[in-house]
Design a protein that fits this description.
The chain is α+β, with helices and mostly antiparallel strands. The protein has three domains: 63 residues, no CATH class; 101 residues, Tetrahydropterin Synthase, Chain A, CATH 3.30.479; 133 residues, no CATH class. It is built from ten helices and eight strands. The strands form three sheets. It has a three-stranded antiparallel sheet with strand order 3-2-5. The protein has a three-stranded antiparallel sheet with strand order 6-7-8. It has a two-stranded antiparallel sheet with strand order 1-4. Strand 6 and strand 7 form a beta hairpin.
């Protein structure tokens, strides 16, 4: 009986020793570190790979994960500079860089980082008013990250970033902010509408201005063209009158020219007499209408004066032909009324 008990004890002891030897063999996964203590004191840090410890002497005290992890920062009440109560939460991203410091430098680095993020957030928001709290989230994140990074090295961790998730305000403050935003949108809409109307009026005035300018330029061009047309017409009439005077003068010096001019004057008389008969004009006629000279004088025509005028024009033609075309046309235009009276 005693032998069986002793055998059982030795069997259990052998199994225990075997288990200890087996557990002394460790394979550390990637991105993890094992903190090994020997007889209760820090001995070594095992990285990824195969490791063997001395049974009953070496033991794994801490296992640290080196991957980046996100720590939720719970909501907390904060007061802004203008005494508005807000509720803020966030997320903290950290990773272990020194496993021995993370194991022996602080009891729980996750909890410590979370509490420090809360207190820092509360102090930063206390320096900002409500409007700036919403506008300067990036500044809040940077300030919290800077404060935590100053102490994180002694904890064996690295703080990568901090993000504010939500900033909640009371319902009354939210309603006031919505009314303010609505008023601001209405003001901007009114400003945009007035600016549009102003620009439309400017465009209309500019269009009217351009229309008036175009009309005035068109009218000016029209008048210039009409003036040029009248000038060319006057010049053509003057040239034609000069040519007719020249031909009449040449005819006078030929044989029978006097009889021809008398015939022409008689025709003019008959034409004028017809006009007088169809109008209410009273004219004193001589008793003997066969005297052509007296008849012509009665209607304002005089053979002697007309002959003298033609002779004077004939003498003046050689001098007028030596002048420029435009002055000749002007002189001819001045003498045209005298000739028209005789030719009619």
């Amino acid at each position: 009986m005693m032998d069986q008990i002793a055998t059982g004890i030795w069997t259990l002891l052998s199994l225990y020793v075997a288990v200890k030897f087996i557990r002394s063999i460790r394979i550390v996964p990637n991105r993890q570190s094992y903190i090994v203590e020997r007889l209760g004191r820090y001995h070594a840090t095992w990285g990824p790979g195969f490791h063997f410890g001395i049974p009953f002497i070496d033991s794994v005290a801490f296992i640290q994960h080196l991957k980046e992890e996100a720590i939720e920062v719970p909501p907390q009440e904060c007061f802004t500079q203008d005494n508005v109560r807000v509720e803020v939460d966030g997320v903290l991203y950290i990773s272990v860089t020194h496993p021995e410091n993370a194991s022996y430098g602080i009891t729980n680095y996750r909890s410590a980082a979370r509490v420090l993020a809360q207190t820092t957030t509360r102090s930063v928001i206390g320096t900002l008013d409500l409007d700036r709290t919403f506008e300067e989230r990036e500044a809040i994140n940077s300030r919290v990250l800077s404060v935590i990074s100053e102490v994180s090295e002694s904890w064996g961790i690295q703080v990568h970033r901090y993000e504010v998730k939500n900033i909640e305000v009371p319902a009354s403050v939210r309603d006031a902010m919505e009314r303010q935003l609505t008023a601001e949108r209405d003001r901007r809409a009114l400003l945009a509408r007035t600016e549009g109307e102003k620009q439309a009026m400017i465009n209309d005035s500019e269009g009217l201005k351009m229309e008036m300018i175009n009309k005035s330029e068109g009218e000016m061009t029209k008048r210039i063209n009409e003036a040029e047309g009248r000038a060319q017409e006057i010049l053509a009439i003057a040239q034609a009158t000069a040519e007719s005077i020249t031909k009449v003068g040449e005819s006078l010096v030929q044989q029978g020219g006097d009889e021809a001019i008398k015939l022409r004057l008689a025709q003019a008389y008959l034409k004028e007499f017809g006009h007088l008969a169809s109008s209410k004009t009273q004219v004193l006629l001589p008793a003997d209408i066969t005297k052509i000279d007296d008849l012509l004088k009665s209607v304002g025509l005089n053979i002697d004066s007309e002959m003298a005028d033609f002779a004077q024009l004939q003498n003046a033609l050689p001098q007028a032909q030596t002048r420029d075309k435009v002055p000749m046309a002007a002189d001819a235009a001045q003498t045209a009324p005298v000739t028209s009276g005789s030719s009619d």
